[in-house]
Amino acid sequence: MEGNANAPALIVQGISKTYRLWATPGSRLWVPLLYRVAGLLPLPRLAQWLRTRAQARIHDHPALQKVDFSLRRGEALGIIGHNGSGKSTLLQIVAGVLEPTAGTVQVNGRVAALLELGSGFNPELTGRENVKVNAAILGLSATQVAERMDDIIAFADIGDYIDEPVKTYSSGMALRLAFAVQVHTEPDILIVDEALAVGDAAFQAKAMARIEQILTQGTTLLFVGHDLAVLKAFCHRAMLLERGQVVMEGLPEDVITEYLHRAHTQTLSKLGYQQDGQALQRLDDGFGFDDVRVLEASVNGVAHVAVGYDAPLEFVLKVRLRPDVVNPLMIFDLMDTRGMQLCGRRISMPRVAVAGEVTVRVALRAGLQMGVYRVRMRLLDSDSVQQHVVLARQEGSPSFEVVDDSREVFTGLFNLPMDVEVSA
Predict the structure, then answer these.
(1) Which helix (H) or strand (E) holds 161?
(2) Contact criterion met (CB below 8 Å) for 224 and 192
(3) Which terminus has fewer CB within 10 Å in the chain: N or C?
(4) Helices 142-156 and 127-137 sit at what angle, rounded to 10 degrees?
(5) 9-63 pLDDT, tens per residue?
(6) Nearest 5°: phi and psi at 246?
């Protein structure tokens, strides 16, 4: 596969991983002994009894079950799922850290894996020495390491500590240095497992920018993370894992909606919101109840409208509520095309005595840069900002497009008021 430029960057076929769990540490010794003795006994009943006793002391846990997918060069796949669903195990197998119980992984190109950053550092060596060792392990020559050393050190931004033993580093410094090494290896495939949360806010922003730069160069991305906005921003496809199995694969928005629907279904069932035949349902634009959801939504009387900069927008939302929603509240958010939340409002609504409809009107001006924007609407039973239950989540429509290019007036997305003074 190495010589075929048209070959997929990654092919995963029938990957399974089963862990054998032992009842006690001593079981590792005497359970195999019981099996061996049972195989030598001429008495079938006694042999079967010994095997049954032995089997009761072990448990096979299937972490992954027959996972299949492939990635083209330059494609980005995001993997989501609840804790324990097998996400990290899958990435470790693709990265070569774990051996699968069954199945094969074919990799075409150099892999950089942002997994357990810093775990491979030798604490007795300096940061600079660890960079050389780690980069060599990743396949860089001594010349390539020397050429990129200054960039790696500048990116990690740990100052003079680069020539101090790693055992003197804080955990954040070690993570930043490890991240810097991985993202400067010019990988063909980048594997990321929750690694974009390293360092402070400034370093996280720099890390995100670096990842985006790597992807524009045609690197293939395999991403696992709980930040759904980042997954939407970077990934072309998404995959939902549940108990080690792929339960859905498709566009990020569709997979994320299914993931949130499953999560909220469990929560609402425990809290009693799904009694008397009421069930959280998948909708075309998200999920909600028949009697707790946004029925209709429009902007300037239509589903989508194109307007000029600073033009008036009026959103009209017809909401259905039921009496057991004690503190009904809507969160109205504006989103960009990458799924990033730009701004929003918490809108209190009246509690209804019987199931009925409430109309919400939101007026604003399109003081945004040229582009397409859409609305996300969430209906909550909210005691406070910290304590609430999401009952419905709908996103996508209505939407609007600002057609004026306003970069001469302001940069970015918003035109915030500023007092600017220039003195000679």
Answers:
(1) none
(2) yes
(3) C
(4) 130
(5) 899 999 999 988 777 777 777 777 777 777 777 777 777 887 787 777 777 888 9
(6) -80, 115
Phi, psi (5° rounding) for residue 148?
-100, -5
Question: Which residues lie across from 111 on neighbouring strands?
Answer: 189
Q: DSSP secondary structure string, 184-245?
A: TS--SEEEEESGGG-SSHHHHHHHHHHHHHHHHTT-EEEEE-S-HHHHHHH-SEEEEEETTE
Peptide bond into 32 cis (omega under 30): no
CB-based burial, 366-378: b 16+ in 10 Å, e otherwise = bbbbeeebbbbbb
> What are 27's two structure tokens?
């079981």
Q: Which of 276, 286, 280, 247 is nearest to 266 (CA)?
A: 280
Residue 10 contacts residue 106 (beta carbons within 8 Å) = yes
* 5: pLDDT strictly greater than 70: no
Tens digits of per-residue pLDDT, 222-279?
Answer: 988 777 888 888 888 999 999 999 999 999 989 999 999 988 888 888 887 776 667 8
Task: Give rounded-to-5 percent helix, strand, coil for the chain.
Answer: 30, 35, 35
Average predicted confidence (pLDDT) for the chain:
86
Rama region for 218: left / alpha / beta (φ>0; ψ in -120 to 50; rest): left
Structure-block tokens of residue 116: 């357990």
Architecture of domain 275-402: Distorted Sandwich (2.70)
Distance CA 44, CA 21 (A): 27
Residue 181: helix, strand or coil by DSSP? helix
Widest CA span of the chain, in angstroms? 103
| DSSP 8-state symbol, 146 | H
Helical pair 201-216 and 171-183, crossing angle rounded to 10 deg: 10
Q: Please report, for the chain, the start and end positions of each structural domain, with discontinuous segments joined by +.
A: 10-64, 68-252, 275-402
**C-alpha to C-alpha distance for 90 and 113, rounded to whole angstroms:** 12
Checking if the pLDDT of 312 tops 90, the result is: yes
- CATH for 68-252? 3.40.50.300
CA distance 66 to 14: 4
CA dihedral 401, 403, 407, 411 (to 10 degrees): 0
Angle between helices 171-183 and 142-156 (to 10 degrees): 130
Please return the burial class of 350, using the count of CB atoms within 10 Å of its CB with bins 0-12, 13-18 and 19+: exposed
Tokens standing for residue 204: 């996280």
- C-alpha distances (whole Å) from 54 to each of 18, 35, 44, 57, 334 are 18, 7, 15, 6, 59
